[in-house]
Here is the input.
Amino acid sequence: MMKKPAAHLVQRIPWVLVVFAAALTIPWFGDRYDTFLATQIAISALFAMSLNLLLGTTGLVSFGHVAYFGIGSYVCGILMKTYGMPFAIALPAAAAGSALGALVFGFFCVRLTKIYFAMLTLAFSQIIWAICFKWNDVTGGDQGLPDVPYPNLDWMSQIPFFGDLRIAEQFYVLTLIVVMLSLAAIRRIIGSPFGLMLTTIRENPERAASIGLNVRSYELAAFVIAGGFAGIAGALFGIFNRGVFADYVYWPKSAEVMIMTILGGIDHFWGPVVGAATLVLLNQEITSYTQYWPFVLGAILLMLLFVFPGGIVGGLTAGFARLRRKAGGGADA
Amino acid sequence: MFDVSLLFGQFLGGLTTAMFLFLIASGLSLVFGVMRVLNFAHGSFYMVGAYLAWQSVQWLAPALGSFWLAVLAAAVGVALLGGLIERLLLRHIYGREELYQLLLTYGLVLILGDAAKIVWGTQQLSVSRPPILSGGIEVLDTTLPTYNLFIMLTGVAIAVAGWLVLTRSPAGRLVRAAALDREMLGALGANVGALYTGMFVVSSFLAGLSGALVTPIQSIVPGMDVEIIVEAFIVVVIGGLGSFWGTFWGSVIYGQVLSFGILILPGFSLFSVFALMAVILIVRPWGLFGQPLR
Here is the structure.
C-alpha cells in the first residue's frame, strides 16, 4: 500500500505506545476491579493473538489451541507452587513446555488438512485435558492446583510509585509488560520473511509448495511459536486466577478463544486484541444483567458470521475506507 | 486373573454404550458425509431430545405407554428444530470455509445449551424406565437389564434400516449421489436443497431419538451436550467421517476400548479413547472404513 508523503498528524502518533502507557496507569486511576479486568484483557489478548498466528496468518483452523494454554498454566503452576521456583524460571519453562507440546502434536497435525487438522488438534487437546483431569499426583486431578503463589515482586516495590501498589496490581504491571513484549515479538515474526511465507501458505499452499517451500515445516514452525505464546498466556492466567484447573483445557475453551479472535477480526494484526477486550468487557456488562452469557455469546457469534464476517476491525476498516473514498472522491483507491 | 462373567459383563456394557453412541453418531456422520458440515450442535439436539422426552412424560404422566409417546414426541420435536435451523441458518454457509461452519454450529451449541437451562433449569432430571423393560435377564452369570438389550437391538435395527434405505431406495441413491457430487446432482434436476433439509431433519431426528432413549439410564443435566459431541466425534473419526458402517463399527470399537480400558487402566480410559482417535487420524485420517476425501 502506498503512503502519502506527508502523513496525517493522527498517523504519526505511535498509537500502540499511547495505548500501552494508558493501560499502564490503570492501577493508579482505576479501582481494584478495573485492574482485574485489564489483567484479564491483556492475558486473553495474548492468547487470542497466538491463535491468530495460526488462524489468520497461516490459515490453520486449530480447534485445540487451549491445550498449549493449559500446558503453560500447569507447568508454571506446578513449578511455582510445588517446587517453589521463581517466576523468572517458571515463565520461560511454561513457554518451552507448551512449545515442546506443540512440536510433538503439531508434527502430526500439519500432515492433515482442513477438517482433519481441526479434529486432530481437538483430539490432542482432549488428551491433555484427560491427563490434567486424571493425573492426581502432579496436576491435582479434578481438584486442580489452587493457590498458585504470586511471583516475588520486591524489585518492583523499589521503584518509586510502584511501591504503593497492591500485589495484584503489581502483577498486572508485570503481565502488561510480558504481554506487550510478546505482542511485539509476534509482530516482528509476522512482518519477517518467515511471516510472509506463512501468509503465502495461507493464500495458496499448492503454489507455495511449487516454488520450493517446505509447507509442512513452515506450518509446524508457526504451530510451535503459537503454542509457546499460548503457554505464556496460560502461565500468566494461572497466577492471575490464583490456581490452575482442568476446566482450562476442556475443549469449549478453544472455541471461546476462537470466537474472541474472529470477533476482533483475523485479517488485522490488532484484531484479536480488540476482540479480547470487547469480549471480556461485554461479558462483564452482560453477566451483571443475566447469568445466560453463553446465550448472548452464541447470538453474537451468529450475527458476526452473517453480518460482519470480517470482525470488528474488519468492519471498521471497511467503513473507514468507504468514508475516505467518499470524502476524497476516490483519489487514492 | 479375570473371570469370564466379569469380562462378559464389561463386553455387554461396552456394547450398550456402543449402540447408544451409534444412534447419536449416525446422524452426525450422515450430515458430514453428504453435506460436508461437521455439526457441533448435534450433541445439543441430543440434549434437547432428552429434555423434550422428560417434558412429555410430565405432561402425559397418567397415560399408559407414555414413555414411548414421549420418545416419539421428542424425536419429532428435535427433527422440526433441526429442519428449521437448516432452512434459516445452515443453508447460507455451505459454500464457506469450514471455520465458519464450525463456528456457526458452535454458536448453536451455546444458544441451545442456555435455552435448555432457561426452560428446564439446572437440576438433574430423570425418567423412569417403561414398565415393560424394567426387568433383566441372566446371561452367563451376568444380569443384562432388558432396557440395555432393547437399546442394542434398536441400534442394530437402525443400522440395518439405514443401510437398506441408503443402498436400496431411490432416496438413498440421491443421498449417495449428493455425497459424491452436489453440483452434478443439481444439474441433473434433483432438488438438492430439499434433499439437504431432509438429511438434516433425519439426522436431528436420530439425535432427538437417542437423547430421549438415554433418559431412563442417565440423568439429564446441563453439559451433557458438549460431553456427548466429543464422544460422537471420536466414533465417527474411528469409523471414518461420513461412512455409515464405519460409524457402526467405530461405535463398537469405542465402546469396547472404553469398557476394557476401565478394567485395565482405571482412570485412563478417557485418555485411551482420545489417544485412539488421535492415532487413527494420524495413520488413516479417513478412518478404518472410510475413503479418502477427494
